[in-house]
Amino acid sequence: MTFSNHLIGGIPVEVTKKKNLKNLYIRVLPPEGKVTVSSPTTYPDDEIKLFVLKKLPEITAVRERMLAQVRQSQREYVSGESHYLWGKPYMLEVVKGGNKYRIKKVPNKIIFTVPEGATRESKERAFNEWYRKDLKRVLVNITKPIEQRMGISANEYRVKNMKTKWGTCNIEKRRIWINLQLAKKPIECLEYIVTHELVHLIEKNHTHRFHALVEKYYPAWKDAQKKLEKMPLDYLESEERLFNEEESN
């Protein structure tokens, strides 16, 4: 594996060459729109530059959208903050008392009971665990009908807090990871990501066929993607936009 940095079309680009890759991939990473390229070790630098230049209008548009998207500041878990659950904002009310963390959702408000002296980090852990439990609850309800519609299933769904991806798929183990942050988004965003990751079990890479299958099994995917792009991003969460050589052929 080798690394190098280039300035292409006025944009800094980090290039990584790997032996096991067959195609060239461009990623635009949040929050500042960092551009990275992964390519086979045999791929000439001049051809990498030409491919990036070809995709430059799309790369620039994604970078500008990332920089313009509203982002929440780091949450302090104090009364008056806004916290999202399934696309709806709730005002947080923090109550001190007892020695356990308790969270209760009522109309338009989340009541968060915390022990005296609770730190921001400990409150965040308790809040994320609450999100995790609710996300798993909803996953159980939505994955079965999606799998039945597609005629394919994963062996396992797991949840973790990811900084640059909404979901990932371990094709060999048929295991799908879902970003914890999706508990804050409308449920249709979760349905779209589950569908997207399941399609990887049919078509490994983001080819034309891959996107056609996503369109087939979740026709409203563009609307869901727009919601992911327009809603305020959490301090940790963000999306990753990927272009690859195979899609452009």
Give a concise summary.
The protein has 249 residues and is α/β, with parallel strands linked by helices.
The CATH topology of the largest domain comes to Zincin-like
Structural class: alpha/beta
Question: End-to-end span in angstroms?
Answer: 26 Å
Average pLDDT, rounded to a whole number, is 87
- Any idea what the radius of gyration is? 20 Å
Number of domains: 2
C-alpha geometry: globular
In terms of DSSP E residues, the strand content is: 25-35%
In CATH terms, what is the architecture of the largest domain? Answer: 2-Layer Sandwich
Q: Give the helix proportion (percent range).
A: 25-40%
Q: CATH H-level name of the largest domain... which superfamily?
A: Metalloproteases ("zincins"), catalytic domain
Give the neighbour order of strands across the main sheet. 1-2-4-3-12
Number of continuous helical runs = 7
Largest sheet composition: 5 strands, mixed
Order of helices and strands: EEEEHHEEEEHEEEHHHEH
Extract low-pLDDT stretches.
235-239
What does this structure look like?
It is a single chain. Helices cover 37% and strands 28% of the residues. It has 249 residues and is α/β, with parallel strands linked by helices. It folds into two domains: 2-68, no CATH class; 120-245, Metalloproteases ("zincins"), catalytic domain (Zincin-like, 2-Layer Sandwich), CATH 3.30.2010.10. A hairpin with a 4-residue loop joins strand 10 (167-170) and strand 11 (175-179). Helix 3 crosses helix 4 and helix 4 packs across helix 5 (208-217).
